[in-house]
Amino acid sequence: MTQLTVQPSQTFAKIGLPAPDFSLLSTKNMETLEEKISLEDYRGKWLVFFFWPFDFTYVCPTEITAFSDNYEEFLDLDCEIVGASVDSVYTHRAWTQTPRDQNGIGPVKFPLVSDFSKETARAYGVLDDETGAAHRGLFIIDPEGVLRYQVVTDMNVGRSVDETLRVLQALQAGGLCPANWKPGDKTL
């Protein structure tokens, strides 16, 4: 069993507090790969910010392509998506230029960022120090930059786009949402 040692001064992302800031190289400009994306770029909109362990693996493409295939549903809810891993932007570009049927993800509708330094994964509490990979962490950040939802799963378990959409809609509903609440249901 792995033991985690947390230094007293070490802080992680916490619900109800401002989300940790970031400024990371992205695939926003696929030709130069020099355009950075920051949390501040999404001020005034909802943001789904998620991490996956590594590019060119098995579960990761299923999640990224699922979010890309449902991207318009998020836009309809005034929400953007940004994906992150500890791989380089060059690896991200190669992965998006590789067809899905050849272990790639093909083009995606939202930017992928490189947390090559691993500082952002560490700030969000998803860095696995043993492997150097990020766990599957998903964070919903409100238009003011406050962290409203987080889920971190084992590296072997993919996340549900439908559940992410449901939680986003529940957060936007502004009331107390009981278990199994769905859009259109009454709040408490």
TrEMBL record:
InterPro entries: AhpC/TSA (IPR000866), Peroxiredoxin (IPR050217), Peroxiredoxin_AhpC-typ (IPR024706), Peroxiredoxin_C (IPR019479), Thioredoxin-like_sf (IPR036249), Thioredoxin_domain (IPR013766). Pfam families: 1-cysPrx_C (PF10417), AhpC-TSA (PF00578). GO terms for molecular function: NADH-dependent peroxiredoxin activity; thioredoxin peroxidase activity. One of its GO terms (cellular component) is cytosol. Belongs to the peroxiredoxin family. AhpC/Prx1 subfamily. Homodimer; disulfide-linked, upon oxidation. 5 homodimers assemble to form a ring-like decamer. This is Alkyl hydroperoxide reductase C. It comes from Paenibacillus silvestris.
